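Protein modeling request. Please complete all fields; requests missing the sequence field cannot be processed.
Requester role: graduate student
Desired output: 3D structure, token encoding
Chains: 1
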Amino acid sequence: MKYLYLFIICWVAIPTCAQQPKGSLKGSLKGSVRTFDNQPAPNVNVMLKGTDKGTTTDDNGTFELRNYPAGKYILKASAINFESKEIAVEVIAGETTSIAPIVLDETSQHLEAVVVTGSKDNQYVETKASESLRIGSDLIEVPQNIKVTTRQTLQDLGVLNKSEIARTVSGIVKSYGEDLDMTFQIRGMNSTYNTYRNGVGGPIWWNAQEDAAMIEKVEFVKGPAGFMLANSEPGGLLNTVTKQPTHQQIAEVNVGMGSYNLMRTTVDLGGEFVKDGKLTYRLNAGVQRNSQYYKFGNMTRYFVCPVIKYEFDEKTSITFEHNFVQATTQENTHNLFTIDQKFFAIPSSTAINDPNIGQFMGRDIYNRVSASHQFDKNWRLNFNAAYMSTDWDGYTMYLDGISPTKDSLYRYSYYTDWTGKLFNTQLFLNGEFKTGAASHNVLIGLDFGDAREGSVYGDNYGQHKYTLALANPTYYLPKDSLRNFSHDMSWISTNKWQALYLQDHLKLYDRLIFTIAGRLTYLTTGQDYNSPPDDPDYEINDHAFTPRLGVTYMISPTMSAYGLYDQSFLAQRGAIYGGTRLPPLRGSNREVGVKGMFLDKKLQVSAAMYDITKNNVGTSDPEHQGFYLKTGQVRSTGFEFDITGNITPDLVIIANYSKINARITRDNDSTLVGIKNQGTPDQVANAWMKYKIPVGVLKGLGIGFGVQYVGLRSGISPGWNNQDGNKFLPAYTIFDASISYATEKFTVGLNVYNLANKKYVSNGYWYPDFQEWYYSPGLPTNFRLQTSIRL
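Delivered output (791 residues):
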């Protein structure tokens, strides 16, 4: 299928003078917001138009806007399901002015406009999850550590794609990938198949990651998530929320450049097709090209994401969404060997690939239809159906070892034609009602899915056909010789599921909350490699009931403590040598934590301790290729802490710390007990602070500084390279900085990464055959300059 897309690339005159402050002295405003039936209106966005500041009302509907330059303003109050209201106000120097109560009228017609306005600027904290995460309660009431990375955070950090967001949340590390596919670890557990988009996903590998320009926010759910997943790893999941249609007119052009010939352009368009009409749209599109810090490295990505929404009336709507993302690259991950176990003995710029072999291509095509109907103010029905296809095609080269004299590298060529398809349908009902002193928030969900993936591939591994002399490397080998493969192989796997989920979020006296839930899941799993489709045991059925029990105590309306017990269930692919199969993976999570919202809910703080156990873990059988071993039990315990938001209206902090201890705790092979999970760090810490000048000729100028620390990481995969016991990659610390300038219509930001040009190891593993490390170097010092123009 051929696609022809029109990319809008334009240059707009950049304003050179910022708006001057309305006065040199400051004052404050205070007031309250009430609903049409004279009830306090909490969580209402209140801001002064023409400024980038604001606040939200507390549980009593009151608010205060502090330290604004004296002058006349328009104050805007907006909230979901209510008409926005604007009133004229005046800030008087040295005084706190009280204004009359603001009354909001109920509506649902302008829902999306309110959502977009609420996350427009300086929005680092989310109090509720997206609708696609299904839970309708405030996050502070949910007995689980759920973190949200907002669009403003992505912009501040200069993020270009999803693989770069791990630093924003505790307990998350990227374990593989750069430009195309990638994987995360959550709490020391693999989360390859726990990646969702707008609540839709399943056991399939996404081969082209989302561009940051198409993302509204990313939600991280730590631990099992029965309300989302029918079959999952127990570490957690991430849910990417894409930009959606809005009644508010949006026209934004973004142009970027940076190190290694980076050039990118994106557009964001949205609004109503007809003024005050029922049909709204959103279009995000872009293209990026760049080379790499190593020779012959290059990457091209483009994406087109149109969405339309039709509102039949104020209670019923339907949305159609299409995402097309495609990228090509020479090497998805750049790997080298150590020499005598010394990292960076081989220059990081050394090319492993040959430019004549061609490129890898990753493509994801995602189509979704969602519908929503509000029966009344308490009951809402949502429907999601999506079809996704993914491709991973092309040729590349990998390292096959190092010569005994350590002066040459051995390489092999590889090709693959990987395809995957996913169909997922969800129907869920949210409702609220009361029984005596108890209020109930009920979720009933049905989940149906059919996923399959497989590939045809070949290589000439082990033949040492392409020796690369380190002193005088030779490239541009004949193309035919690079694509001369001795054999072809293929595999296919399938996974079908049906699940029913029931949950009652029961609140007593607005203090004590019990979450009682359970998921009944039926799986049909097709075995791969050693179970051909004509085998009567090719598809195997499993089922399980996984309970979820939680308790939350509201210390105050903005602070809570919670405890949780949750389970996960995952049917594993693969056969055990001798005729049996891997049994289903069963996991559990025990977790306690505290959450707090401070400074008018602009600052969010949380801490959690967890104990995750995973049984029947399968790993590759080193003696029988294509078969698996039932390793036993993996246990991960740890502590995590996050602080996100505004310390003051002009000072932002995003910081987190996690301590992770994920290791094998039980196995038939006693030598494996105590081995840490591959890629798991012992500690991770991240911090980012940004200060924005609020007044004067430098108003709008922002300065940011950040630090990333990643501790020792295991390079051992049980059953493959554990002969030498635990082996750890070195820890590292790198520093980043930014400077930005923003007005109402224009933003420019310069981000510089790895300021000290630290040589560090991004990821890797121990190679026992050569007694060397196989690793991926981290990026040297690099920069990105990005400009946004709102038309």
